[in-house]
């Protein structure tokens, strides 16, 4: 449309502000349903919607103005006491806000929205005239992204069907320039949980795509969709105090650089007295401190409060509970906890499915809760807290919980594990079975769940963020899903180890402790070498054999590592130490088990290992250490 020519920036500003306003309005509407007499809350909702309508009118988005005007009139009647809020009226209001959100998406894509769905408009008009809302306009739950497992990146090994030649890879790395850092791959995620009542069949672990809001007609606009989309993805709000800190540190680094330049000239001219060398050492120490502070300050500019993500979920939980005939309250804590913006975007879909599963599978119906002696209102808690250099996100419900025996039985029925394996699993290990691809416990597909994909994709996407997800569950009491994530993906704490005189880096988040391997510690279990650590029998896996190399010496040390599924001891030759590294992606090559590369302090190339990928791609024969062979060497 010609009237939008040259107004791209105004349109983008409107979409940014209005999207946040609408999300805030949705959350306050959910609160209003609990406190319908709260006049201040209703006034806040009215002002927010009025601001959205005003912006739409300035940009001549007539369809949005018309829809917002009707909804605003309804809010006005509510705050003037001319009508009383009930669930049906709230469904109509939320159906309208869902269509406004769809209109935002169309504007972002460069399309001018047409008139809103006639059924929603009729329902609004009917309510304004004192009638009942049209039942078919009940607000659907917002739809998450389509469920799809992330496609694996092409690898050199995959192209040939063989394991990668690690030494050739190292040689190749020495001849290439270090590539620029790349943004983490976008996450497309799936739902999340398996729950089981004490005396009922256990429902499925995954969700089908939910019902979508009524379609909105549209016609093309002249704005460039690519330009608008790029603007939305690359912008971030930063507190000016943080920018001032970056600027001040940059100035101090400039002064230190000038000092070093002067000292360098003195040294080059032969001035090597004690005073000059001490001044040089002090200047380098000062520069090291300033660079570290600048790095932290820059990282903080990427940090955003996780509340911006959490604020989407009260509406989602409310709509799904209404659809399923349940009474559920979503309690949110820790909204001020900060996380890297890129990680916030990638976390959205996994958390959407975890919250939906908690409402769908985790909590019981009102009748079931009454029969069990529980309060009719179920509580789902979503919390975030920073612990050290990690963020813990928990999704907890007070529902029916999961039954490990039923999970084992279903896994056997579907051929995912055999009976012997099932009998050897304890309850904690049994809960981990829900992460297996294809795991399902429900025989019939509904419009909410039953598609056969779920926790395996959620787990995969969490691992792509260098995180892990754990489960705790008690039958009849509820379940807790705990996600542990690093504060940022830009810098990864690692433990640098050596095998065959070659350094490798493993994520420090997986490391529990370091032990010395002695021959008298090694025991044979099913023909494999194991070590007992505090009454826990742990298999010993050779890093050299995991990457397809022959061991040139007996492993002297072990790294006790914890993955999502199990613990194990990684046998290595020696250690270099702990480090914080910036991972550089490998251009046009992605060997299995390699997350990227980094440079050590001496300038040598160090591969950063993706342990989960390495373990899943390596067979038992080329990773586990045979007891007899190992004992012969360490004896």
Automatic annotation (TrEMBL):
Residue ranges of every copy of the HPt domain listed in the record: 3-107
Recorded GO CC terms: cytoplasm
Secretion signal, residue range per the UniProt entry: none
Alphabetically ordered keywords of this record: Kinase, Phosphoprotein, Transferase, Two-component regulatory system
GO biological process, one term: chemotaxis
CheW-like domain residues: 491-620
Modified residues (Phosphohistidine): 50
CDD domains assigned: HATPase_CheA-like (cd16916), HPT (cd00088)
Pfam families (UniProt xref): CheW (PF01584), H-kinase_dim (PF02895), HATPase_c (PF02518), Hpt (PF01627)
PROSITE patterns for this protein: CHEW, HIS_KIN, HPT
Family annotation (SUPFAM superfamilies): ATPase domain of HSP90 chaperone/DNA topoisomerase II/histidine kinase (SSF55874), CheW-like (SSF50341), Histidine-containing phosphotransfer domain, HPT domain (SSF47226), Homodimeric domain of signal transducing histidine kinase (SSF47384)
Residue numbers spanned by region Disordered: 135-161
Reactions listed under catalytic activity: ATP + protein L-histidine = ADP + protein N-phospho-L-histidine
Enzyme class at the top of the EC tree: transferase
Bias-annotated ranges (Pro residues): 141-153
Record field: transmembrane: none
Enzyme Commission (EC) number: 2.7.13.3
Residue ranges occupied by any Histidine kinase domain in the UniProt entry: 257-489
UniProt GO molecular function: phosphorelay sensor kinase activity
PANTHER family for this protein: CHEMOTAXIS PROTEIN CHEA, SENSOR HISTIDINE KINASE CHEA
Function: Involved in the transmission of sensory signals from the chemoreceptors to the flagellar motors. CheA is autophosphorylated; it can transfer its phosphate group to either CheB or CheY.
Name of this protein: Chemotaxis protein CheA
Organism in which the protein naturally occurs: Amantichitinum ursilacus
The gene coding this protein: cheA_4
């Amino acid at each position: 449309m010609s009237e939008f020519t040259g107004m791209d920036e105004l349109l983008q500003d409107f979409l940014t502000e209005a999207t946040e306003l609408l999300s805030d309005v949705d959350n306050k509407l959910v609160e209003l349903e609990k406190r319908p007499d709260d006049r201040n809350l209703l006034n806040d909702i009215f002002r927010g919607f009025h601001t959205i309508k005003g912006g739409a009118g300035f940009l001549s988005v007539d369809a949005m103005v018309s829809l917002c005007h009707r909804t605003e009139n309804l809010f006005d009647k509510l705050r003037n006491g001319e009508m009383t809020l009930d669930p049906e009226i709230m469904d109509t209001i939320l159906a309208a806000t869902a269509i406004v959100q769809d209109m935002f998406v169309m504007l972002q894509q460069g399309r001018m929205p047409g008139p809103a769905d006639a059924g929603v408009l009729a329902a609004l008009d009917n309510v304004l005239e004192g009638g009942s809302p049209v039942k078919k306009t009940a607000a659907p739950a917002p739809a998450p992204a389509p469920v799809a497992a992330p496609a694996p990146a092409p690898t050199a090994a995959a192209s040939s069907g063989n394991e990668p030649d690690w030494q050739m890879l190292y040689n190749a790395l020495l001849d290439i320039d270090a590539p620029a850092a790349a943004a983490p791959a976008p996450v497309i995620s799936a739902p999340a949980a398996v729950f089981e009542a004490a005396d009922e069949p256990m429902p499925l672990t995954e969700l089908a795509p939910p019902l979508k809001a009524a379609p909105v007609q549209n016609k093309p606009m002249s704005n460039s969709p690519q330009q608008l989309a790029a603007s939305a993805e690359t912008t971030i709000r930063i507190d000016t105090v943080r920018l001032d800190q970056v600027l001040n540190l940059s100035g101090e680094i400039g002064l230190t650089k000038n000092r070093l330049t002067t000292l360098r000239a003195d040294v080059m001219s032969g001035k090597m007295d004690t005073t000059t060398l001490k001044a040089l050492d002090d200047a380098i120490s000062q520069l090291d401190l300033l660079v570290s502070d600048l790095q932290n300050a820059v990282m903080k500019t990427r940090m955003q409060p996780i509340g911006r993500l959490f604020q989407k979920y009260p509406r989602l939980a409310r709509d799904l509970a209404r659809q399923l005939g349940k009474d559920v309250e979503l309690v949110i804590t820790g909204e001020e906890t900060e996380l890297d913006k890129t990680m916030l975007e990638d976390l959205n879909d996994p958390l959407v499915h975890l919250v939906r599963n908690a409402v769908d599978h985790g909590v019981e119906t009102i009748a079931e809760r009454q029969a069990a002696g529980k309060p009719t209102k179920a509580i789902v808690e979503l919390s975030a807290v920073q612990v050290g250099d990690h963020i813990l996100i928990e999704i907890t419900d007070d529902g029916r919980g999961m039954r490990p025996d039923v999970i084992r039985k279903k896994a056997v029925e579907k051929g995912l594990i055999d009976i012997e394996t099932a009998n050897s699993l304890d309850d904690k290990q049994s809960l981990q079975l829900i992460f297996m691809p294809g795991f399902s416990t429900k025989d019939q597909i509904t419009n909410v769940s039953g598609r056969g994909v779920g926790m395996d994709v959620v787990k995969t996407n969490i691992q792509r963020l260098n995180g892990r997800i754990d489960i705790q569950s008690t039958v009849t009491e509820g379940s807790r899903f705990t996600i542990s994530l690093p504060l940022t993906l830009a810098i990864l704490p690692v433990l640098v180890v050596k095998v065959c005189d070659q350094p490798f880096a493993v994520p420090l988040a997986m490391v529990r402790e370091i032990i010395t391997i002695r021959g008298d510690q090694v025991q044979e279990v099913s023909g494999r070498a194991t070590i007992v650590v505090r009454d826990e029998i742990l298999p010993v896996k050779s890093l050299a054999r995991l990457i397809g190399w022959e061991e040139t010496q007996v492993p002297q040390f072990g790294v006790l590592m914890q993955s999502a599924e199990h613990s194990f001891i990684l046998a290595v030759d020696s250690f270099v130490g702990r480090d914080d590294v910036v991972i550089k992606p490998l251009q046009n090559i992605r060997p299995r088990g390699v997350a990227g590369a980094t440079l050590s302090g001496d300038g040598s190339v160090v591969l950063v290992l993706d342990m989960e990928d390495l373990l899943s791609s390596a067979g038992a024969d080329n990773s586990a250490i045979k007891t007899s062979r190992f004992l012969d060497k360490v004896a």
